[in-house]
Design brief:
The chain has 753 residues and is α/β, with parallel strands linked by helices. Helix content is 25%, strand content 15%. Strands 1, 2, 3, 4, 5, 6, 7, 8, 9, 12 and 13 form an 11-stranded mixed sheet that branches. Strands 18-15-14-19-20-21 form a 6-stranded parallel sheet, sandwiched between helices.
């Protein structure tokens, strides 16, 4: 499609779609379970397991030690047409336990019963201690070659393709918690390079709460639910979180990011990713540079608004998970560019006065531009959530030759923590042999035995030096591409529990972030602080956090204080004189709308042929149309995916009204509480609610024909971002142009400059 002119592209798509409209093979909306439609009656003819869905992938079929097997990916799943025991013996009956007579007790000898129940009893493993809630996808990374002079890492060479698995996550919530909570998001990528696995274990925020890993249990204990009542789930809006961050002021920068729109992403596809720490690259000549890693999403950085996020948590707690899978199934493959900020590797490890070892600091992109070094495309969903997404194990110490760590004290601690926690979570030391964790490089270690050993190691001498195995394995030298521990000089120094003085500045970059925001983003930040602190019980904690805000900005502090009904304190440190970084704002640019959801309200008395054309045009523009009718099933032969009872505005990025449907028979407050929200004789009240909410959340709205009447009754006609016209095609073109800016920002008049 023509990215520079979405309106033109949509018009063209409408014209093409009009020719195809009689085609019965119109695309399906993504999300249907199973790779084949089920029959109404229970199937009785034995056959092999169905193949995975077309968009599903699995880890490559490698041996536990990294060799290619050549067997098809489905060989990893169940085989044959018949039910068997775990040992492959066919079974006649799995619905009745073996009993002493039809009314008698179960016999201990019922090995099938015992195997089935015992295995079930042990299906759960401990969830991750942090980042428990997440979702993943397979993809491919292609190097641009632009980093070739900086690093010897082969996967960054021009055109080199590397398989990847990515897991996105929230930090605080349990495995079953909702997706759209206010929180930091994890963005962990496993590159299966042929020189060893590289894990870039990143977040969607470039700074962290703490400067030293020894504080990690403290921040997590403070953010997790209170230990007495175990509430609130997956929230930072509670006393222990604010108690900690207001006392431990190095957390203020990360906290501001969480309170900004970055804390509530619209989609994993619209998040940036940041390696946070400074890493060290080393090239063939042994020369080094310091770098920070960035992921830049093709769709731009885009967030929810807070009310929308809260509603989604109830309406669709799996919103981000569904969004990722649906986008891949629809062929709207999520894409990011990997980039690096590059700094000279000087003994001070600073750049423009910023300490590169302090993970609470960024280097503004205006000072060190992000240079693209490769492209990531996610193109396969997992076939089995547990086997892949739940069992994947990332570790910041998984580095290929050419990438090394620095002395950032947070990174240093992480190097210990990941394997340590995975030993418990994945039940022993052999989790790198789980299919999703298997390297794609030959493995010849001297690690042996342990729970769940899958490799069948040969030889008698897993030690070095040896002669009994002919000396194998041999250490590799530079010419055999051995990993390089860069021989950085470590200054002779007293052994201390201390941080450098440069780590003491806790406010200047928080102010930098605040000053870099657009007025509407500042409004959202004020609202977020006010909401979160308003949820605390203890006045003392609110007052203490206001003291921190006073050191960031007087307007921010005064506005939050007003919302809390408290006086605004004076700053205790001079306000930093900082240069804003416009790159930190999410607003002001235009982006493609791939995989966005468009709700189309269908009027049973309207022109359904026009609706069919618009639906095809939405597909052709790379988005997903969901038709919303007065009841489920089909409306005059046109299948609908949502009814007025099941649809809610928060599912959609834009609403199109193909008519003004009259109240449906179930539009009774007694049957559907949403119907009580508005009173109209002529338009279904749930449609009015849909439009009012979409308007309030600054989404584009379009109507044609009788649809204009809905705009009038909802009181939104003629307002910014609301378009009407004679044909669906024209209106869709206008709506898509509006969507390029993500939201209709003029609908949020800002009170702060
Ligand atoms: C810049 C700071 C940090 C970032 C960007 C970060 C990122 C992440 C991400 C993305 C995950 C989820 C991995 C997955 O999807 O499986 C994760 C998990 C985890 N992180 Fe961190 N983290 C940071 C700091 C720390 C620190 C300081 C520690 C401990 C000292 C830590 C310990 C853990 C643990 C224990 C897990 C669970 C791993 C598992 O069970 O597989 N993290 N982290």
């Amino acid at each position: 499609m023509d990215r520079n002119n979405p309106a033109k592209a949509v018009k063209a798509a409408v014209e093409t779609a009009a020719e195809k409209v009689t085609d019965v093979l119109t695309p399906d909306v993504p999300g249907a379970p199973g790779s084949a439609p089920p029959t109404v009656d229970e199937p009785t003819t034995p056959h092999d397991p169905l193949p995975p869905k077309k968009e599903q992938g699995t880890p490559e079929t490698r041996t536990p030690t990294g060799a290619e097997t050549g067997v098809p990916p489905t060989a990893k799943g169940q085989q044959g047409a018949y039910l068997t025991t775990s040992q492959g013996a066919r079974l006649r009956d799995t619905d009745h336990s073996l009993k002493a007579g039809p009314r008698g007790p179960i016999l201990l000898q019922d090995h099938h019963f015992r195997e089935k129940i015992t295995h079930f009893d042990h299906e759960r493993i401990p969830e991750r201690v942090v980042h428990a809630r997440g979702t993943g996808a397979h993809g491919v990374f292609t190097g641009y070659g632009t980093a070739e002079t900086l690093t010897r890492a082969g996967f960054l060479k021009k055109g080199r393709e590397t398989q990847v698995f990515v897991r996105f996550s929230t930090v605080l919530g349990s495995r079953g918690s909702a997706d759209t909570v206010r929180d930091t998001r994890g963005f962990a990528t496993k590159f299966y390079t042929d020189e060893g696995t590289f894990d870039l274990v990143a977040n969607n925020m470039p700074v962290f709460f703490i400067q030293d890993a020894i504080k990690f249990p403290d921040i997590i204990h403070a953010g997790k639910p209170h230990p007495d009542r175990e509430i609130p789930q997956a929230q930072s809006a509670h006393d222990t979180f604010w108690d900690f961050v207001s006392l431990h002021t190095e957390a203020q920068h990360h906290t501001m990011w969480n309170m900004s729109d970055r804390g509530i992403p619209r989609s994993y596809r619209t998040m940036e990713g940041f390696g946070v720490h400074t890493f060290r690259l080393v090239n063939d000549a042994g020369e080094t540079v310091l770098v920070k890693f960035h992921w830049k999403p093709k769709l731009g950085v885009h967030s929810l608004v807070w009310e929308e996020a809260q509603l989604i948590n109830g309406v669709d707690p799996d919103f981000h998970r569904r969004d990722l899978y649906d986008a891949i199934e629809a062929g709207a493959y999520p894409e990011w560019e990997l980039g690096i900020q590059v700094f000279p590797d000087t003994p001070e490890e600073t750049f423009a006065g910023i300490d590169l070892l302090d993970p609470t600091k960024i280097v503004p992109e205006e000072l060190a531009p992000v240079q693209p070094i490769g492209r990531l495309v996610l193109n396969r969903t997992p076939t089995n959530f547990f086997a892949e997404t739940e069992q994947v194990a990332f570790h910041v110490g998984h580095l290929p030759p050419g990438i090394d760590v620095t002395n950032d004290p947070l990174l240093q601690g992480r190097l210990f923590s990941y394997v340590d926690t995975q030993l418990t979570r994945l039940g022993g030391p052999n989790f790198s042999q789980i299919p999703v964790n298997r390297p794609h490089a030959p493995v010849n270690d001297m690690l042996r035995d342990g729970f769940h050993q899958h490799a069948v190691h040969a030889g008698v001498a897993p030690y070095r030096p040896n002669s009994l195995d002919g000396g194998n394995p041999f250490p590799a030298g530079d010419r055999e591409n051995a990993f390089v521990d860069v021989p950085v000089t470590v200054a002779e120094a007293p052994k201390v529990r201390a941080a450098p003085a440069s780590f003491d500045d806790h406010y200047s970059q928080v102010r930098l972030f605040w000053l870099s925001m657009s007025p509407v983003e500042r409004e959202h930040i004020i609202r977020a602080y006010t909401f979160e602190l308003g949820k605390c019980y203890r006045q003392e904690i609110r007052e203490r956090q206001l003291r921190c805000l006073a050191n960031i900005d007087p307007v921010l502090c005064a506005q939050v204080a007003a919302g809390l009904g408290l006086p605004a304190p004076e700053p205790t440190v001079p306000l930093a004189d900082v240069q804003p970084s416009p790159a930190l704002s999410q607003l002001g640019r235009e982006w493609p709308a791939d995989g966005r959801m468009v709700g189309i309200v269908v009027d049973p008395d309207g022109d359904l042929e026009d609706v069919a054309q618009v639906r095809m045009a939405v597909f052709s523009a790379g988005m997903v149309p969901l038709l919303i009718g007065p009841h489920g099933g089909a409306v005059r032969g046109t299948p609908v995916q949502r009814s007025f009872a099941t649809a809610r505005s928060v599912e959609f990025d834009a609403i199109l009204l193909a008519g003004a449907p009259a109240p449906a028979p179930d539009a009774l407050p007694a049957r559907d509480a949403k119907a009580g929200a508005a009173g109209s004789e002529t338009v279904d009240p749930r449609v009015l609610l849909l439009v009012e909410e979409a308007w309030r959340h600054a989404k584009a709205i379009g109507a044609w024909g009788a649809g204009a009447e809905v705009l009038r009754q909802a009181g939104v006609a003629g307002t910014p971002g609301v378009v009407s016209g004679d044909s669906g095609g024209d209106v869709l073109a206008d709506v898509q142009s509006l969507m390029a800016a993500h939201r209709v920002w003029q609908r949020f008049p800002a009170s702060v400059g």
